[in-house]
Amino acid sequence: MTVQPFVSPDLIRQRFSKAMSDMYREEVPLYGALMELVEQTNREVLSREPDIARQLANTGEIQRLDMERHGAIRVGTATELATLARLFAVMGMQPVGYYDLTPAGVPVHSTAFRAVHEAALQISPFRVFTSLLRLELIENPELRSFAESVLAQRSIFTAAALRLISQAETAGGLNEAEAAEFVLQALETFRWHHSATVTAAQYQTLSAQHRLIADVVAFKGPHINHLTPRTLDIDRVQEQMPAHGITPKAVIEGPPRRQCPILLRQTSFKALDEPIAFTDQGSVRGSHSARFGEIEQRGAALTPRGRALYDRLLNAAREELGDFPNEGNAARYNELMAQHFGEFPDSVEGMREQELAYFRYFATEKGLAAAGIGQSSLEDLLREGYVKAEPLVYEDFLPVSAAGIFQSNLGDAAQTHYGEHSNRQAFEQALGRATIDELALYAETQRRSIEECLAQLAR
Q1: Could you list the residue range(s) of the whole structural domain that residue 107 is in?
Q2: Strand pairing class (286-289; 273-276)
Q3: Is residue 246 in some structural domain?
């Protein structure tokens, strides 16, 4: 009997990402329009900006640009989160970072499941921003108990998905047929449900506490609430969205427009108002809004020093604004952001010299052709043009930006002030493991690239 080889977790992730995108395009037609706009914008940027095209070719990002996606889901219990961690592990995805959204009035804490090695990210950079509802923040004990009882009665995974997760864990992987079945079964966890699991009155009570609580508690499963393609010019996409029948949110979340993009910039279209059936309505239908479209532009990953500077400038701009960014103050907010971020160096050299960002290092053709440079310092090699530094792309998320996207789609009425502080320990206990420090991953990638570069030049 021939033993079939296992399919690489990276390839399973790549197939799952495509299947998710196809499903979401079918469920949310505006996502398809958004994809076309992003693809068109990226072609224009690559055509008119040869330096950007060259940089993406150097780093290998150009090969992954069209398949770049992140999704977002929200779950309600520790068991759901722990099982999701096992499901994502089959696809080579690990929990990176801890995000507390309660300071921005959103009762969840989160992590991002993604690949952690640059080689795996090249095959598929798919990420899922995964949030766990903080039931302890529901002030009314009766409502909290009701929410817990509703969540306890559901199972968000198919029996076949659970079986295949266990099989992958026991055997060490999945063969071709098993991997194909796993993708189909795992997809069911993220599918939209037109039927609620509560009555109309119960839904309204949950929604009155916080609209996100209703979104998590009132349905059979978590449903993917957005999928996000990566653009090379988010300002252009934001400007063009209305012409494609898409209404964008008021402001782009994250840093302002720069020559050298940093971290993550995000915008979205407003959540769709979709018909659903409550358990007591029969043929009469209600509605629920949760799913939206999002676009992102990714820039350089920042070091602890760079991130401290970013946080200080962002906080200063928001404090001077004195309110959540919205349609009424969008122009003023953009003005303040540009003003404050004038302090952040806007060149590769400036960010590298001040150790504000992480970089990948590549041997140039000149360096590979030269002799006797193996003992030179990295700075000397850079100065002589034997080595080139490219900013390391930020693979993760920003809690203030995530909360801003959530709030724009939940409505201003959903803004709540929670007295609780973050509770990373409780999140990791629910997850069943510690989350990975994203800054350590970037530092490790940078270190590997320097070693590989110097080894090439030594040969």
Answers
A1: 9-291+402-436
A2: antiparallel
A3: yes
Handedness of CA 249, 439, 390, 349 (dihedral sign): positive
What is residue 2's DSSP assignment? P
What contacts 24+ positions apart, CB below 8 Å, involve 19-24? Answer: 19/183, 19/184, 19/187, 20/69, 20/71, 20/187, 20/190, 20/224, 20/227, 21/69, 21/227, 23/187, 23/190, 23/191, 24/224, 24/227
Q: Which residues contact 177 (CB under 8 A, 6 or more apart)?
A: 4
Give a yes or no: residue 342 inside a domain: no
Q: Which residue has the tokens 């789609």?
A: 409
Buried b (16+ CB within 10 A) or exposed e, 113-142: bbbbebebbebbbbbbbbbbbbbebbeeee
pLDDT score at 415: 46
Q: In terms of C-beta density within 10 A (0-12 exposed, 13-18 middle, 19 or more buried), how is residue 451 classed?
A: exposed
What are the beta bridge partners of residue 96?
Answer: 112, 436
Give Rg (Cα) of the chain. 23
Tokens of 382: 């850079």
Q: What is the pLDDT of residue 73?
A: 92
Token duo for residue 133 = 């509802």
Structure-block tokens of residue 269: 């279209």
Quote the number of domains for the chain: 1
State how far the Cα of 234 lies from the Cα of 170, in Å rounded to an integer: 44
CB 124 within 8 Å of CB 71: no
Q: Kindly report the pTM of this predicted structure.
A: 0.90
Residue 134 domain-assigned (yes or no): yes
- Residues with Cβ within 8 Å of residue 431, at least 6 apart in sequence: 78, 81, 82, 85, 95, 111
CA distance linking residue 58 with residue 171, whole number of Å: 38
> Tokens standing for 70?
């992140």
Distances (CA, A) of 126 to 60, 170, 336, 369: 16, 25, 33, 37
The helix (run of H) or strand (run of E) holding residue 268 is: strand 264-269
Mean per-residue pLDDT pooled into runs of 10, the chain (459 residues): 83 95 86 87 91 83 79 94 98 96 85 94 92 91 94 96 97 96 96 88 90 90 86 92 84 91 88 80 68 85 95 92 84 92 95 96 89 80 92 88 57 51 87 96 96 87
Asked if the structure places residue 296 within a domain, the reply is no
Residues 144 and 419: their CA atoms lie apart, in Å, by: 17
CATH classification at residue 43? 3.10.180.80
Question: Please, which residues have CB within 8 angstroms of residue 364's CB and are 6 or more apart in sequence?
Answer: 385, 386, 387, 388
